[in-house]
Specification:
264 residues, alpha+beta, Ku70, Chain: A, Domain 2, two-stranded antiparallel sheet, 6 helices, 25% helix, extended
């Protein structure tokens, strides 16, 4: 996993420890990056911290975290006070519990990272942990400091290595809206169920990453190229909202029309 954007940690399970290397499994390296300019001068602009009362610039060394206890009271917290709340080690991924591999719902998942042994020294211990997790069909829960904050993470076997997901904490996930819990199951007419099954089956293909291409990036690249060559692309008309027609919709007719349109 040689390349840019790597972290080195120690993977620890009880008394078994091995060096590992971790790299982001997702990123925006291929995205077109846009800068913010001053339209009048064409120069880039910069973000600066200003004192809200005096309007004067504030040096980075003078910045301090604070908690608003009351509308007019802010309690300052120094860096050393915050550091005391952090993990004892910022370089160790310490697995403290295991859960069934499918126990964690998708809503808890945040960012994926590849995890592999760092050199030959850690391969044996890493492989022992990996194969035991795979055989037991479990995922490991751990904590580590990443992106300047302490995070809960989930480790899952993935090929010859592991996939480490940063997780959202329980106070970051909102409960589902009433529509999820109050909706009563309805009896679906057999013809509707059959047509929907056919529609899904007709649209099912073999998975490939090319299915997730970003059309906005393609169009943005065309716009930039057009500006470079002096050609302006026509602006598309806004889509009209077809939802508020006021007509009663026949699901059977819509399903039949959908099947016919997809085949065409």
């Amino acid at each position: 996993m040689a390349g840019h954007g790597q972290w080195k940690f120690y993977l620890k399970l009880s008394l078994v420890t091995c060096p590992v290397v971790m790299a982001p499994a997702a990123g925006e390296g291929g995205k077109i990056r846009l800068h913010t300019l001053n339209r009048a001068t064409g120069n880039r602009v910069e973000i600066r911290y200003l004192d809200a009362q005096t309007g004067r610039p504030v040096a980075e060394s003078d910045l301090v975290k604070a908690y608003q206890a009351e509308p007019d009271i802010l309690i300052q917290l120094e860096d050393d006070e915050l550091d005391q709340l952090a993990l004892d080690s910022t370089r160790t991924i310490d697995i403290f519990r295991f859960v069934s591999e499918d126990a964690v719902d998708n809503v808890w998942y945040d960012q994926p990272h590849y995890l592999a042994p760092d050199g030959d020294v850690g391969k044996e211990a890493f492989s022992v942990i990996l194969e035991a997790m795979r055989k037991s069909k479990v995922a490991g829960l751990a904590r580590l400091v990443l992106y300047r904050r302490e995070r809960a993470v989930l480790l899952r076997p993935f090929g010859r290595g592991m996939l480490l997901w940063t997780l959202r904490y329980n106070d970051e996930v909102r409960p589902p809206p009433p529509a999820f819990t109050d909706m009563q199951p309805s009896k679906i007419p057999a013809e509707q169920a059959h047509l929907m099954h056919d529609l899904i089956e007709q649209g099912t293909v073999k998975w490939t990453p090319s299915l997730l291409q970003d059309p906005v990036q393609t169009q943005l690249a065309a716009v930039i190229k057009g500006k470079q060559t002096g050609k302006r692309r026509p602006v598309k008309a806004a889509d009209t909202d077809r939802r508020a027609s006021g007509k009663v919709v026949s699901i059977i007719d819509r399903l039949r029309d959908s099947l016919t349109a997809d085949k065409a």
